[in-house]
## 1
Amino acid sequence: ECWYIISAEPDAVIYKGLKKGVTKELFAEAVEKGNVAEMLAKVPVEQGQCHFLPAGTAHAIGPGLLIAEIQTPSDTTYRVFDWSRVDDTGKARQLHIEEALESIHFDASGDNLSVTTAGRLIDCEYFKIDKGHEAKGCELPLSPGKMKTLIILTGSGTIAGAEGNHVDPVRNSTTAGIRQKQEISNVVEFKVGDTLLVPAAYEGAMQFADDTQYLTVTI
């Protein structure tokens, strides 16, 4: 998975991978003592950064952050530490300590994980993320071929789809059928914070009413 930092308060951090020298034994001991956070690499973050988190990376989000999380389609999460939190009844959430200890990559350091801010943010075998920036009044074609997920970071505009309207075949001396000219329809407005799913067969254009930044996710 990856985290794109949409907004960050001053001194905001994420926990990304392990500190150098942390072994499976040291980590297991920290779990028992309740000080797992001391084993994790604390990374200061800023708005506009994209942090890649490969499978097997211990990670956590600090306070004061709004993040877009993009990941492979999996519901498997092994929770090894929950900051000693409990619900209103005093019950803690389920932990998956044994599974987590078998899944964490103890030979990898958080120092080696990528941080990007522009262009192609992530290019892995599971998904790709591109950051786009278009000026007010611009138009960007949306070509068919791949499903896309658009996450609007700033600005606003519309997506207008070109939809073919069919008529019944008409017999005459020169043709066996007529297809009407494509017309613009299905206009969808978008604004900051919206996420839009664009089907693979969709053809149209994004039209920008304001200076706009957005993420495009493809697989």
## 2
Amino acid sequence: MYTVHREELSEMVYRSIKEMILTNQLSTGEKIVQEKIASQLGVSRSPLLAALAKLEREMLIQIVPRKGAFVRKLSVKEFVDLYEIRLRLEPLGAYEAAVRRSDKQLKELKKLLTECEKSMNKTHTGGLKKADYKFHMKIMEISENEFLYRMVSVSNMMLMSNLEGLLKTPEKSLKDHKNIFKAIAGRKGKNAEQFMYEHILESVNNLKKRENINAKD
């Protein structure tokens, strides 16, 4: 019983820290103060260390010997690589979501689109990142392609690619999301696929511009 409880506790800590990263409570490059997190979550070091080890395996944090654990800070190239993968996978998910979605799933996606819109009016960018993450992940879920969903979710590629925030204005991102939603609602697979491709491609191009600027400095 104790082993099961300990595993459940470490999973809770893992999810809590992951949520902190997603909502900007822990910023990219920030040191994770273990004593503070343990006190905040009311746990001992054992489940905390297990959670940190899992987060490191998933590349969300980096553990530096004799220095501690830090939220992973990606290079521009690493961000480009992540978005290039998303560019290949997510349009497929959008297409399949449009073809396979149920009315119930569409209502759930509409609710997340509303969350995106509401989060635009808040000063805390963590809410916008979280809303964006949930919207994209929901589309992958609605695709009912288990292999695709697991590839995207287990790798944390969406969470990691948003570590530095969105790569376009909230207004443009929301406009893209509305176009994608409309295509999925109308069961227009090709349109949903194209809108998602263009949505992510813009982020890829913005990243590449940033990479070129850094290379010149």
## 3
Amino acid sequence: MKARLRPGLVMGNVVQYGDNIRDIKKMDIDVFKADIQKCIDHIHEDLTQIRTGRATPELVEEVMVNAYETMAPIKNYASISAVDAKTLSIQPWDKSILENISKAINIANMGLFPMIEGDRVLVKIPDLTEERRKEYVKLMKDRVEDGRIAVRQVRQKYMKEIEELQANGLSEDEADRTRDEIEKVVKETNQSIENIKEEKEKDLLTI
């Protein structure tokens, strides 16, 4: 049975912070990168909910459907494909929930028009007005800024952890090396976020 360390107690080369036991010789940069990736994934997920004038499965796949006495995204219940540039086809594996899917899309209030046709739900994607496009661009930029804030918070968390590790024996050289690596990842991430923003804005403004 492994000995449980008290907070801040050093034993050999490890130190405990809360429920986490870390090697004081270094910080696991892969854990930091994984947390940063979660920020990017969340931005992607948020932006797929902001529709452009084109039909893409991502537009509706996260819409929550009430079926079988539970709530789950459409993608859990059906295959989604683009029939053409303005139409999506949603084919549930269980045809008894066609009405549930159509109702869920209406409730989502995304300005889409679902219609049940045989064993599928067809979703018409109307053209965006210029005013609506500008509203969506503003919403998109707000979501992107939320993502940038999340990245800064992750950075601050790990910078503080480096200070705590230093106080418990982490070498200055290792601390500086880790800080440099964190800053490099953050810089690359911010550039990726900017690229995501520019691409989404282009999609929103393209008629």
## 4
Amino acid sequence: MTELVAEAARRLQAAPDAESTMRTAVELAQRDIEGVDAAALSVIRARRRIETPAATSRAARSCDELQYDLGEGPCLDAVWEAEVVDVPDLSDEPRWPRWAPRVVDEAGFRSMTCYRLFLADQTVGALNLYSRAPDGFSAVERDHGIAIAAHIAVAVRDAQQIDQLQAALDSRTVIGQATGIIMERSDLDAFQAFVVLTNVASDLDRKVRSVAEEFVVTRRLPGTPEGVGRPPRAPYDG
């Protein structure tokens, strides 16, 4: 088991971005943990919204999403309440009376285990393992899942932070390009050109980056007939 966990950690760290990391995570979980028929990853997004960005089957993804729709299920409990949620038999499960029967009837899963993905100061989401057999996971495999989940939590958090940093750098680059074009065309300094860009974004209720991207591609500022820019608004002095 130690060798499998070490290999999983290396593969997770080698993934180039968050999407690839999460896809690798569910593939490794299904491959390396005996009894897993499908694996899925629940991830916390903004405003405590949870979604499943990676799953090894449509059935697992649908079962995850059904939990979010109903507001009940072991994945949600793992994210918010318990570090490990073990479900030996979904056909005899009173904790989630609306969700569990539908999973058995519609997807054919009979047991599952969910692991919270967390670090010392942050919960990332949950790793959700599905089995078509009752009591699908032995005690040894459940412990294996804990080890795999710990590595997945670190890898996903790191990949998300790198993606966020790259997005911020990309945003600064395209905004800088758009500002430079406005400066050249309208004979404005950098601050005035940036104000033009933010004015347009505000008028259109769009993000500055979105307006900048369109302008760099089309060379027309959205919402301006001349397609170049407008002088900055006079500062409010009232």
